[in-house]
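Cross-check.
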Amino acid sequence: MAEIKYDVKEKLGVLSESAKGWSKELRSISWNGREAKFDIREWAPEDESMAKGVTLSKEELKKLKDILNNMDL
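Predicted model, tokenized:
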């Protein structure tokens, strides 16, 4: 399997933190040299490891924002 390269452009916010120190975060990340996208996933302390997550384009993030704004939370 080919190595996946990534470059964290910006840490935008922490959504939660686990007792083991992992944090679920929204970040802007460039994957394999491509244009940066928005990414939600868990990161180990010191960013030495990451869990599976979801990557969103700007348009998808805007749509998600609209959906969340219309929810009765």
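The two ends are 42 Å apart (CA to CA). The longest strand covers residues 6-17. Passed to J.P. for a second look.
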